[in-house]
Amino acid sequence: MNNSVTNTGRLLWAGLRALIVLTIVCGVIYPLAVTGIAQLAFNDKANGSEIKSGGKVVGSELIGQTYNLPKKNPNDAEEAARPDLHWFQPRPSNGLGANTLNTQYQLIISGATNLSGDNDKLIQQVKDAKAAVVKDNSTATYKVDPSDVPAEAVTSSGSGLDPDISPDYAKLQVHRVAEVNHLDVKQVEKLVADNTTGRILGFIGEPRVNVLKLNIALKSLVAK
């Protein structure tokens, strides 16, 4: 009887010691070590790839934002969003739904529309988006050819949160941005070129333009 109680006590004490040691190692030492290494070696990425403007965090390099005019009636949930044409526009954010938390990008969670390629609703969304791109970006001296509208200008990304557009879509918006902001087209073209990121290592991925970074640069140019 005594041996049985003693053995049970030893097993319980051994289990308790293992629990304490593993809790300290896995629950304290390991997380602190990983956090410390991340902060030292990848400080920017570890903190969410924040983008600052005027000393304030205005967004993340990894999350897209919309650039819309304020609603005429803030309480009207059915009122359609109107793009603010002073800014470069991102790709559509037709994700899985709306929310009241992230008002900059109206999505419940990341995800695409989940509509098939032959879905009537998706087809109509693409047609409407294409017509809007042509209309919004045509100026008195520059007319957008519908065949020049790139795919990402009329479709959302797989995550619905893509922060980048192609250089082609950025260039398509140059004349409109220049006209609305009273800038020279060459100035805006240089702005796009300066904010275009090439392929990783020269062959991975596609050239891209981060819309938030581009609009921050545009804001600075307009201020001058």
Strand arrangement within the widest β-sheet reads 3-5-4
How much is the radius of gyration in Å?
25 Å
Beta strands, count: 5
Q: What's the order of the H and E elements?
A: HHEEHEHHHEEH
Distinct helical segment count: 7
Largest sheet: 3 strands, antiparallel
Mean pLDDT: 86
Tally of separate domains: 2
Summarize the amount of helix as a percent range: 40-55%
In the predicted model, the low-confidence regions spanning at least 5 consecutive residues are 97-102
Question: Which descriptor suits the 3D outline?
Answer: elongated
How much β-strand is present in the residues?
A: 5-15%
Which structural category fits the helices and strands? mainly alpha
Termini separation comes to 89 Å
3D architecture notes:
With 224 residues, the protein is mainly alpha-helical. It has two domains: 2-44; 51-223, no CATH class. It is built from seven helices and five strands; from the N terminus they run H-H-E-E-H-E-H-H-H-E-E-H. The chain has helices spanning 2-41, 43-46, 120-137, 167-172, 174-180, 185-194, 211-223; strands spanning 50-53, 56-60, 164-165, 196-197, 208-210. Strands 3-5-4 form a three-stranded antiparallel β-sheet. Strands 1-2 form a two-stranded antiparallel sheet. Strand 1 (50-53) and strand 2 form a beta hairpin. The N and C termini lie far apart (89 Å). 21% of the residues are buried.
